[in-house]
Batch of 2 targets.
Target 1
Amino acid sequence: MPNNKTLAFYAGSGCGGCSQSLMLSPSLATMLDGADIAFWATRSGDLTEDEISQVDDKGIDVLMFAGPVDGEASVATAKLLRRKAKRVVAYGACAHLGGLCGLTNVIPGAKLRELAEKNGGFIRPLSAVIDVDYVLPGCPPPQGMVERMLKELFLSDDVPDVGTVFASSKGVCGECDRKHLNSPLEEIRRFHAAPPDPDICLLDQGYICLGPVTRGGCGAVCPEANRPCTGCAGPVAGVLDQGGAILQSLASLVPLSGDVSGEKEHRVLDSIQDIVGTAYKYSAASSLLKRRVNDGE
Amino acid sequence: MSDNKSFEPKIIAFLCKWTTYAAADLCGVSRMPYPSNISIIKVNCTGEVTADMILTAFEKGADGILIGGCRPGHCRYEGGNLKGANRVYLLKRALKEFGVNPERIREVGIAGAQGLIFQRAAEKFTADIRALGPSPVMSNA
Amino acid sequence: MSRIGVFVCRCGTNIADTVDTGFVAKTLRGYPGVVHAEDYDYMCSEIGQQKIRDAIKEHNLDGVVVASCTPSMHQETFRNAAEEAGLNRYRLEVANIREQVSWVHDDREVATEKAIRIARAAVEKVRGDDDLEPIAVDHESTCLVVGGGITGIQAAIDVANSGHKVILVEKDPSIGGHMAQLSVTFPTLDCAQCILTPRMVEASRHPNIELLTYSEVVKVAGYTGNYEVTIRKNPTYVDADKCNLCDKCTEVCPVSVKEEFNEGLSERKAIYLPFEQAIPSSYVLDEDACLGVKPIRCGLCEEVCDVGAIDYDMAPEVITKKVGTIIIATGYDLYDPSHLTEYGGGKYPDVVTSLQFERMVHPSGPMKGQLRRPSDGRPVKSVAFVHCAGSRDPGRHNPYCSRICCTYTAKQALLFKKGVPDGVANVFYIDIRTDGKGYEEFAQGIISSRRIRYIRGKVAKVVDEGDHLTVWGADTLSGKRMEIDVDLVVLAMAMVPSEGTAELAKTFHINVDENGFLKEAHPKLRPVETTTAGVFIAGTAQGPKDIPDSVAQGSAAASKAIAILAAEQLSHSPEVATVNEELCSGCGICTSACPYDAIKVERSGVAVVNEILCSGCGICAAACPAGAIEVKNERHEQVEDMIAAALGSAK
Amino acid sequence: MASNLICLLPHLDRVELVNGDELVASVSVPQARDAFSSYMRGRLAEDAPLYVQRIDAHCAVSQHLAAVRALDACYNARPPKGAIAIRRALAYAGVYYHHLEQLFFSRPSGNGGIAGLVRTDDELAAHDVLQALRRARDVVDILGGRGLTPERGIPGGVSVGIADEQLSLARDIASDLLRVALRSEEGFRARGARWVEKQDLSVPAYSLATVNDDGEASLYDGTLRIVDPKGVEVAAGDASEILPMMMKWKEDVPLRVGPLARLNATSGASTQRARELQKHLFDALGASPIHRVAAGNWAMIIELVEAAELLSSALAELAAGDSALNASLDEAGEGVAAIEGARGTLIHRYLLDADGIVQEAQIVSPDSLMEADVNAALSSLITGRGREVTDDTIERIVSLIGSYQPAYLPSAPFSLRIVGRDKDGRVSQEWRRP
């Protein structure tokens, strides 16, 4: 059926992966057939504030917003765009969670932080500055999820419920074919040594995999490629803080040694390196703590 | 650092209903006062306390979090307190990365009969959090 | 929108002195979802309860908060009242504003403000509470007793007498345990066999008791009321029903090994009768000692057996039994004397353990009651008894007191003096602990008779000089060094958990304490219960103790077990973990967190809680990476809202 | 500057056109000093390939492989043949994907890209190209383990081999990709070549590219070679030798990287068809080295054919079920590697601690290598226009920047700002790329 909606794509900043993921969708042509395109900005420079202002308020049926919000100017643009659109999709990990950019919120004492602070902008997920109606997770969003979004938003008579996330509410594990042995976590392993057994659950083998805390819908592509899930689709529906969730689960997998001092368990937990880069790779900016603070440390 | 004299810390205490919660009750029964800064949330076991609970408490304005359960080796649920302690141990490492002083979380193991120990722990923790000053987390929105 | 009623108790002046209860009620009235709030003098009074009942009906309440004393005091009272008014009892929560507010804070303004926050947090909980119903469970009415010593026998008989079936499992070929080895028992000095044997017979003949000797429990599955236990019966190679105890087999058996019952002081054949009063009364072929039953390499016993009781084709038999409760009474072992190198434990033949000494003085023991040195058979004229051998020595051996050694050493010294009136008995002690009924009188009688020399001090060293032993020690009262030559040294060995206790605890999903003894649920209030419902412990498996205490615990455990077995159905708290199938991806992390094996990932790919096994501790919920597991009426959102309310923050 | 990740990479930010009274022109390629290093410090080494490809998704494959190869060097690891074969094929697929996307979807013409394109009645149906792009992405997916952003590269090898059926699927796709590449080249030659011939701006520059043992262009590994504007070799060596030199050069020596440089600094493409197609280019514009700026587009489309050919032969050689895919790793240390990224030579350097945690990280991007070259070109353009700023000047600047296409505009998600300043240095005028 033809799509009579007015739509727009806006990537304020970011790496360009999101616009490619949309462009490559097999349903793209169908979606565009009959649609009005208000604008298609793959970088902020494609579009000025004036140009956006010329669009009627609520004149866009669906606006797809990609890239992080990272300063006063981008907050203002996001708010302006919100006025113009009936429905806003946070498209991709940056808009959804802050994405890899969010790690800059946590880097201590770096030049980056000073620069960001001067600019009045930490990385924020889109939902922190405007109401977001739908979320398309992923870095970049996997094809299956893009397809689902296009179908539900543009090619279906029913409008998805506000709050719909075009991914599974369950974790990646639900889609992973690896054999799960329920092994205790006694040693953290990395790609220093030989790569993991491709048939057995990565956590079972001691590799930190964010599959359990991360929304599925991707088909477990990374574990399929014999690499752990790094969490790009954000936390599953039941938790608020993705990093906290994986950390509590990892700690739970470490068997109690019987020694109440916990020394042996701590040795295992201490061997987890780069906690933030591992547990909050994409979600630091949308974590409950949001960014690094100065607590007299 | 802020003016600590006028600063009244907000402290959430997750207390195991079998032990430290009972110790807090005993403080009451024995009329042993402790700072009113501490608000108690009863839990079945400190092993029930999730990362979301701790981080939510910070996000909602807690300056300190006291986690009180059984003494090590005495958990009713076969080491639930130790499992909880391992989770907090790891979470504290993340807090540190976010610049939050991990001293804002303290774990204690206090038996139900140890009212005095709870009183002292409550006093000490409140004083320590007062010295640390307000948590910067909430103003982070 | 919720319809919640809030009742603020003044508790006379207990709360009202410090908390402005009227203001609390008034403030709560303006809180979202609260449709009724009042304060009253004593909410727990009949009038107070009636107020709750009336308000539930009048305002059609779907939740109630009572801000009063600690929930452990009156939560059940209030819940009963609510239930009478037709409200599900689990929709009532208590806000603790007495013990945790009015009694610990004195500033009225501060306390009132805090009481408001605490009450609001309780409102947040109630807002999320669901109707719950206790879980009813059918159950088995058989009791498994593990261990056939005096404790297990007592427990088995008590349960059997209540009309329930009992399966009594013993790993040795006979029941009786260590008590069967003892000479006489303190403080009455009656013969151990004489009081034990009737109990052994009663247990073996009781119509409700099924005796499984030479057997071990290898697996336990299930939960209270419904356990399935797997038991391995080891082959005795002798048909007990056919064996007529003619003893011909032992005469021809060519293999001799140390006899366990006599603590290695004598020898037995590979085919043997455990002891004269053994039950079941049958010979046993010790497969490890035998020259070979598979293939048969000797066959002499079978040849001489007139009744054809010997059956080399017997094989281990694995059976499963369904039981409702379990009592574990697996007893103790002596600490290995070879750890006491300074005393020559396990090395010098004339340094014996207290149990060996029991056998030596036993009239039907290996020496027929005539004390002789194991090394050269000379009569024993002088003995050094050493207290606390391996006990009360935290650095090197066991930190605890083995409780019975002081008294039995007094008894043993007395037995020695009776048997050898001109003999010299020296007792080295740290201090004398005789805490049982009549024990102090018994021991002091022996000590004050001055026929036995009590020396306060530890033995430093024992040296085997060939024809005698030299005991080096010190008398700490006089400060003198001691060097005594004796014929025999008796070590009052520490009691330790019987071999395999740690594995056994794992099998039964219970804990051991820091010394390896089975751990009770509460050291004072729940001494025979464990943290696993329906599994009880008794006797020296739980810690060192004497016969009367062991028997008392056996009976105590039996009564606990009977309470479950006799119940029509078991009732279980509905506040258990629940899995949101929409969120669970089946990662299985919860399964390793559960202390009770109560959660499993099913074929469907989601975790499933066995509500009957679940204790509602919530440890799985905090392990779950997906937030898919919650404890009923303690859901994540409820707790997060409670936190916000307790902090005075907006949601 | 925002804390957007793109600022971690040196990238084209703006063109300074006027400085007070004096009309000058210069591009600026700023990088927050040590920003990338700060971002990566403390991260797991094996995660580096995952970060970099998401900083720069248009060149995700090149970034991934450059990081992976630099990590090989950090661990002194020599990946086994099987792993190199997979990585090579991935590199070719990445270059193909990039070039196709750049040439058809990210040109600074039309109304911003895709929306206009789909409605274009080009003789090469948009649908076909889009389909080819999707299929190229599928090959990246098969070889890299994830579409757009590969996962397979790890220090010392690859995380896992490729299943049989996947491999044969990739082979089928590859032959189709070659077909589309050849048609594209034909189409370009018919229309685009004339355009290139008209764009007469020519700026002599040094050229940098990677050559194989036969001196031909190599898109995965080999020796870095620099030739002077006359085509005479001035330096050759591996990345660790060339890098310090680059850092000294890039401010003032006009250096060119990318498809045109790969033509100039080598004996030519390593595949037969591409070599034949290169002859057309030489026929039109003279022999190598070619300094006509606009020729970059032409070189790029020939490289599209080359990448397709290389991909086909690499896939043909790939043995499914090869289990020796990982080398043992030495103690972690410092490592530098260069790869011929789609946009030009891309150099990564990492310093790891003994635990394999990143201590220092550096990316030398084609943008930064070419800074001096672009400035020379701009300067030449402005001088030729009598220093008068008209709309036409701006158009020409945009077009010029566009001719550095492989390395410039489309891949930077920032807009190109053209800035005029008054005497006091304040911005008096600002143009944005349309």
Target 2
Amino acid sequence: MLVIKDLAVKFPSRFGEFTAIEDVDMTIKPGEIHGLVGESGAGKSTVGAAVIGLLSAPGYIANGELSLGDTNLRNLTPDQAHEIRGDRISMIFQDPQTSLNPLMTIEDQLIETIQAHSNVSDSAARKRAVDLLEEIGIKNAAERIKAYPHQFSGGMRQRVVIALAICTDPELIIADEPTTALDVAVQSQVLDLIRRLARDRQIAFMLITHDIGVIAQIADRVTVMRKGKVMETGDTPQVLGAPTHPYTQALMDAVPPLDHRIARFRVPEEEGTAGVVTGNTAEKWLLEGQQYALTGLTLQDLCVRFAGPRTSLFRKPEPYVALRDVNLDVRPGSIMGLVGESGSGKSTLAKAITGLITPSSGVMRLGDEILPAGKARSRHHPSRQLVQMVFQDPYSSLNSRHRIGAILTEPLWFYGFVQDAKERERLAAAMLELVGMAPDAIDKYPHQFSGGQRQRIAVARALLARPRFLICDEPTSALDVSIQAEILNLLKDLQSMFGLTILFISHNLAVVRQMADDTAVLRNGVIEEMGATEDLFARPKADYTQTLLSLTPVMPREWQSAG
Amino acid sequence: MVYFILKRLVQSVFVMLAVAFLAFSLFRFVGDPITQMTGVETSVADQERLREELGLNDPFIFQFMRFTTDMLQGDFGFSYRTRQPVAEMITDRIPATLELGIVALLISLAVGIPAGVYTALRPKGFATQAILMTTLVGVSIPTFVIGIMLIFVFGVQLGWLPTFGRGGTVQIGGWESSLFTIEGWRALLLPAITLGVYQLTLTMRLVRAEMMEVMRSDYIRFAMARGVPMRKLHYRHALANTMVPVITIIGLQFGGVIAFSIVTESVFQWPGMGLLFLESIRFVDIPVMGVYLVVIAFFFVLVNLIVDLLYVAIDPRLRVKDV
Amino acid sequence: MVAFLKRYEGLWLFVHSPAAIIAAIVAVLIMIGAVFAPWIAQVNPYDLSSFSLFDGLLPPVWQEGANPQYLLGTDDQGRDMISSILYGARLSLIIGLAALTIAAVLGVGLGLAAGYYGGRFDAIVMRIADVQLALPAILTALLIDGIARGILPASMQQDLRVAVLTLAIALSLWVNFARTARASTFVQMNKEYVQAAIMMGQRPSRVMFVHILPNILGPLLVIMTVDLASAILLEATLSFLGIGLPADSPSLGTLIRIGMQFLLSGEWWILWIPTLFLVALVVSINILGDFLRDVFNPRLR
Amino acid sequence: MTHGNLRKSALLGSALAFCALGASAETLRWASTTDPQTMDPHAVNSAPVLSFLNNVYEGLVRRGQDMSIEPSLATSWEPLEGENGWRFNLREGVTFQDGAAFTAEDVMFSYQRASNEAADVRSWFAPVSEVRVVDDFTIDFVTTAPNPLFPDSIANFMILDKDWAESNDAALPARDAENFATMNVNGTGPFTVASRDPGVRTTLVPNEAWWDDAQHNVTEAVFTPIGNSATGLAALLSGEIDFIQPIPLQDVAQVEGRDGFKVLEGEETRVIMFGFGHEHDTLLYSTDVTDTNPFSDPRVRQAAGHAIDIDSIDRVLFRGKIEAANQLVPAGISGYSEANQNRPAYDPDRARALLAEAGYPDGFSFGLKCPNDRYINDEALCRAAASMFAAVGLDAELSTGPVRDYWPQLREDDFDMYLLGWSPGTFDMEHPIRFLLHSQDDEKKLGSWNFGNYSNARVDELLPQIQQEIDPAARQAMIDEVVGITQEEVAYIPLYTQPLIWAAKDNVDLTQRADNFFMLRWVTVN
């Protein structure tokens, strides 16, 4: 049984000591799945790292008790700590793509781990490894074990990671975002596996995640953290269903429900989280620019093929079909949601519309105009201005070497809207205000802002092009849930204010349900189903849509706050 | 795979042709071979006749075409200086340069990799700082100064090692090797160290940087979390993954080693291709210079190909198809 | 510009790195000496009438037979060592920096374009880079030297020796820049800010130089310091091989080449003082390069 | 390849060569800067080749330790009766190293081979109109004009065996491809080549059947070219070689200071001088005088002569090891003009006065061309000279380069002033007059190294007379006149005679000949 008391971890830095976590108490019983939930910067991973003794470089445990069973984890020498790792405590990392040594076979990695902790022969270790792989659901394990990590799919790989974590029968496994990098279907399988292991082997799990849906689905108990401190802890139904701490309450409010649509997320009013400020110059400027009518988008039989890797001199490489006969009609002034798992072709579709890639066939129409494809689209084509995009990663979508002012005024200058440099700056500052940021941000650099703030800046940049059609490619998937709520609110407000047409791309069904008027479901480059959002979610027709909906973790209705 | 190799080969031919062309355009400017070929008392008319006979008065493109077509037919021509067949002169010198280059490379790897691992694992240690500093000074001294210093310390003052040449060599199937006699090794040591110093530093720094990077990767942290023994962790996991980028750079550098052996060979009177090339420049021995360049380009291309194949050997991701 | 952005972090690291401070002091001192050589040096080694063979081979002041007028002695031409070194460092730095600039402009331009356009253009640039790599620096130097001699009137050749050498060194260095710029550009091409710029319909040159370039300056700056050191050493090596600068306008490398003749003759100062100076300069630049690498790659810190 | 066997047989010897003290006392290992390009004595007329092959091949005559001509394959020679030319009486009982007998046919064949267009040494035979075999051991060389110096001029004309050359397809010197004689030898000389690895190592062993009494005790001689002088010196000091030619001047003290080593110093016959672009209308490299050529005024040339402080050059650059020169050959060479022994004194004031007189009170700038890898300290000399010129207002724009492009520049008249070293191949004053002082005349092949085209009708007139004059006194008078004219007109500024500096282990006795040839037959290893 893991007992954590008053745990504090500090990171000395040149500006003094930074306290990562403080006063953390937690106990995890054998067989218990203990959810540790919080937004980025909450210190949840630090708790896990402290328990397993792998705090990154200057960090150290400043205070508190840490014990596993009879062992005081704080009194161990480095060698003893290394002995315990794997043997009694193990860990599962977020990304199965990167957590396996690419140069070693699964077999070697398993045998190596088993032999590190018990004195068994190679053949015994191999047998144990094969049995284990069978147990966690890898078929034909005796053969598959010889494979290298890259030969497994993402979900299988995460199973292998789990096998490696449990092959030494540890008492405690720290699972740090074990399903975040996985698609819904695979996520549900992995979660099932974790539940089974906890139940059958009585392994204690510390399940670190930002996804409250996951916690709701499998955690026995949950601890909510924020800024290095524990906000609330207790049994899952109690904490999530009847939160006592305002933070937990706010968190729950921000979670988009899957089974119904809410008009707006409830967000605590704090600085920098504000919604649209109305009536400023930027708003006026945008409204002035609406010389065009609402603009829709139609895609007809759009196909995108990529050249596959060439393997022979004599055979043409097999093309890889990213999109096949996609027909999509985004009504003017509406939000079209596009959902699909990774690799389904969502981003390819966005790139085809924006002209970054050239479709092999099909017609695209913006309003009534045919949108030239890819390279055929000149640099001065009006669609370059009318179609704007908000990207997924706010850390890479803003040029980190440019001032916010330079980033925001670029479209004004580039499209020739405003000739005077001072005027451009003023307008950019007003636009910042419009999206809920302080106008003085204009003199700062992107790295001085948080992810949510950057996404607001990205939205501001898109708006400064006076777009009629906005593509939002996973605009919130890199953000914490509370920030996501703010951005979604912002987008909704802007859309209704300026009559934008939006293509909203997301893997998150719940988010799409909150945002979209119509929804299309994309799978392997093919549209499986398309229709009005409420209709589609309430009565999914395609099998695939049904599966997706059923596998997405949901919170019991009674825990959800009224929307 | 086959396609990949073929593609590389085609590109290689392009590279070699371009080098040949560049090399050839260079010849016209290095100097006048005729004045180097003839004595003081040779008359101008005799010199002109020789120039005509050697085709040096022909248009440049014509000379280049002749050079390449002859070479493609395996005819590498004859040296202006010694009148020997160039092919033979170069192949006689290849073993010396290759052995020097390879031993220098091995020394740099044998010292550079452990030093890189050590300095990566103890980034703040005193020894690390000392090693980093020493090697930095090492690469900041011109190679020829290092060479001469080594000669005077170990050859003249201490008298431990020979000061020039290859020492005892043994003929093995047309390959004149100094690797099979003690004398040969003694003669090889100083030039190889001189040539290897730069590579050593480069290797060490590269291994260090890559190793530090790899040590932060998820799979190393995961291996840590599984309690994989430290030695295995450092060498089997971390170092092995470090090798992919290290091999690239080292492969690229090997071409440079061969080329830079010109300086080392000149200092140690090491009878390799580089020395031959320097002599050829002095005598404006056009055929030898041309073939030397093409051979160097060939080595470069060959090493690049080997590096690509080594990747495949090391990295299963390139070797095994998805199941 | 980049340094400015990093100033808080970089400055802090700098103040806490004694090696970097010492290196910077040494480098700055040498550079000041080089820049102000005409005012500091008591003798102008280019002005043949300002020194006399009569004063040749005088040892440094602490040795017997020295003339206190020449602190570090004189060489075989009677040139004051200090003056020669200052002027030599000046020339070496001019060559190094100029070569670096050419190499950087050429390499970064091609590398950026190769990374930006990819495909066939990239393949061609990289094959050209291969050709360049397959040609040892000494050959490049010979080639440039020869071509210059072939196309320039005789009276200009002597004046252009520095330019020729600079170009030769630049040509053997640009590949480094091209490869680094290309690799970094590939990374940046996947960044969404670049896609945003392309989507807007911005000119490729603007995307490359206004958007991508500032983001890849970090690694390029590291290469610059390392290559400045290489350029200075390469110049010395070419000089040793006899294709460097003439002895009457000596760079540090030429001074060392001349000094090599006195390795055993007892006039040690003619070789070792310029060598020490060169090593101090190159080590300093390398240390600063290391330091920059640490600043730009915080993960390795 | 034919020489593959030779090369392999060297391996045993080379393995021994590095056991410094254990080697046989009679093995001599020596080094020089340049490898002989070829083993063919007629293919290339260059000092490294001729020097090396003089150990293997022999001529009709040879030079003694004092450079005097002495009998070799010819036992005696006398002028022909009734026509111009010489009769050589050949030595009987001489065999080539492969055992074949030496006869007049071999001389005839060698003459034909060496005077063929493919041979680089054919200029030696320019005066020869006909060669006649009189009998097996008598041969006549007929010349177009009286030629008292002919026997001296063919000391390096080496004799090959006719049958050997013809049966090995080496009847002519290799021109653009190698032939058998490029790598193999068959001479009559004291040594023969046991193995050869070009550019790396050549091993010689004594010719047991040599006709002369061996004055050496060498049983094996290994030659290694070492291009880098510091490396060469290190090899000597570490005991890996026994002898090296040459060593840098500045290292003499170091070698002498060490136990067990000695330095051999002497004078080469090579005189170093500055030449002028006499014929140019304007200076090529001047920044201030562009309309005329000041060097066409003898006063300016005199001024340049007075600007040179040869004593300082000697003391600092050459460590007191050079002899100042006053004419184009050093004292001791036949024809040396005793009557004209004065060289211009170092006198900067006089130089300035002369310049002022010539109309250049502030001097002028000009281009000075120098090689940097041809003569000892050539580059340093030119830097020093430029500095001295500058002191009197002659602003020399110095340009140095390797000989490979230095000679072409001289040939193309691309200079205002240049540096040249000249060693009289015949060891007679006539040689520099023919090559350096006579006006350029391509047809007659005269003045071919007179790059500045110094031209004086009287000198041109005297040369053929000097060449043909049999009476020594009359001949000397004419030479004195030439030297007098050219000194007065400052055709060249002779600077000094180049020193010869060799170094060896104490236990090696050898002879340093003034032509810088190293003769194994005078070496004893103690």
